[in-house]
Amino acid sequence: MRDYVIMTDSCCDLTDQMARELELEVLPLTMHMDGQDYPNDLAGTAISNQEFYKRIRAGKLATTSAVNVGQFQDAMRRVLESGRDIVCVCFSSALSTTYQSAVIAAEDLRSEFPEAEIHVVDSLSASLGQGLLLYLAVEQKRKGLTAAELAKWVEDNRLTVCHWFTVDDLNFLKRGGRVSATTALLGTMLSIKPIMHTSDEGKLVPVSKARGRKAAIAALLDKIEALGIHPEKQTMFICHADCEEDAKAVAQTIQDRFGTPTVHINYIGPVIGSHTGPNTMGIFFVGTQR
User: Looking at residue 194, what is its pLDDT?
Assistant: First the structure.
């Protein structure tokens, strides 16, 4: 069996250290602000998470772009030239063209490397939901799954990774077309916080509403109780948009309430954060359904 690399993109929002420990090959999406491009590498080389949210809170606007075909071709070629195969797990195709770029790059390279296996999988996931799926995939790889077996495992298990989150400022969702201007205005006036998840199609979908942040976070925790499979045995993830103390408090509550042994916390990176705004928080776990 040939060795293989798990490739992904920076919308997995893992820490740089964890991505290295998991031996992932991570390609950056790009955030654009004030006429400058900031590759969203996990180490925050171009711009730190803290600096990004400082600017966003000050009113700066940001746009984003996907990993392009050329970036994938270059990264994939380096791996294939080393004699290894590839399983590429990408940010949801419903939210970015990154997956499509990987598919095109893989197709172009198959004729150049006919002996190689290149599997490209749509994670249908975002942020640390994608991160959790990769974390679990690496566990499977280390159990001895082949590249083809792992790609199938990801496809078969991606919809068990639950994504539940709430946003603090509806105006960011309004700009992205996720909520109407009227909904954003009324929600802001009444302190309405949407409870959202990532659907089976990989889309961000509003599910319910809560009055105030405390109630919204409580609603997220209730989803673990409703959907979680043996939460006392899981590793869970929490992402946050520059509200780390809140995230730590939620992690402690998860451990106290469900007996969950490990809860990893990290920032929502600049690419996803450009669309969700500061103080967004999400929890990710394995459940019976999304």
Answer: 85
